[in-house]
């Protein structure tokens, strides 16, 4: 029995490594492209939403396999990781350059607004992410909701507050006349992404649970609902 428990812990650790790596990658990518807008059917869309909503789904999967404290530490690590890359980029951007280097202002134009976006996300995103984990864990582990329902509803509740807070403080400096339009469009794209990622995550959870408990299917091991 001890050996089986150790095998489950080992497999869970392997899944954790992959999930944490993917979560940090999605978060860093989101911050790198956060100030870039694209036009889709005439509406200004923030493409970072497609990668940052994935962070919520990945953190929910982590919360289904681990304690809430562990996932909260991961989210704190995410914030520190973004601070490290942000500090490095700002240091490089503000460093003196050779006379023949003609792209210094271009880097400043691209990354100049990153501090404001980072602070807005740190103030809103980190808190909301922790709230999302608390809601998800309560509905999934205590109320026994299916993974899809717990993940979808907890994230929808969280981003309903997060979207307008972070968009207003993150974009009011660069786009004061369009900040509410950006927030409205971003709220819609967030909901669409959350639904799609919740479906994909629920499918992935079935395979993850089968992997973690693959040798325990005949031993009365409980498989959480997906």
From TrEMBL:
Amino-acid biosynthesis is among the record's keywords: no
Keyword Membrane: yes
Pfam families: Vut_1 (PF02592)
Database matches in InterPro entries: YhhQ (IPR003744)
Keyword terms of this UniProt record: Membrane, Transmembrane, Transmembrane helix
Residue stretches spanning the membrane: 12-34, 40-58, 70-95, 115-135, 147-165, 185-205
UniProt name for this protein: VUT family protein
Organism: Parashewanella curva
């Amino acid at each position: 029995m001890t050996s089986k428990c150790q095998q489950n812990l080992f497999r869970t650790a392997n899944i954790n490594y992959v999930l944490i790596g993917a979560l940090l990658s999605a978060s860093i990518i989101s911050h790198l492209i956060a100030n870039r807008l694209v036009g889709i059917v005439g509406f200004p869309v923030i493409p970072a939403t497609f990668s940052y909503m994935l962070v919520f789904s990945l953190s929910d999967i982590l919360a289904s396999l681990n304690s809430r404290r562990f996932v909260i530490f991961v989210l704190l690590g995410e914030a520190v990781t973004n601070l490290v890359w942000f500090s490095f980029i700002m240091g490089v951007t503000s460093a003196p350059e050779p006379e023949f280097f003609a792209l210094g202002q271009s880097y400043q134009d691209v990354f100049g607004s990153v501090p404001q976006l980072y602070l807005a996300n740190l103030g809103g995103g980190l808190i909301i992410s922790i709230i999302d984990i608390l809601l998800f864990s309560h509905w999934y582990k205590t109320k026994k909701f299916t993974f899809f329902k717990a993940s979808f509803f907890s994230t929808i509740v969280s981003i309903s507050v997060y979207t307008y807070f972070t968009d207003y403080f993150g974009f009011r400096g660069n786009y004061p006349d369009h900040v509410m339009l950006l927030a409205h469009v971003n709220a819609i794209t967030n909901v669409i992404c959350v639904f799609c990622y919740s479906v994909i995550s629920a499918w992935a959870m079935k395979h993850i649970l089968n992997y973690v408990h693959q040798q325990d299917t005949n031993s009365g091991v409980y498989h959480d609902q997906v």
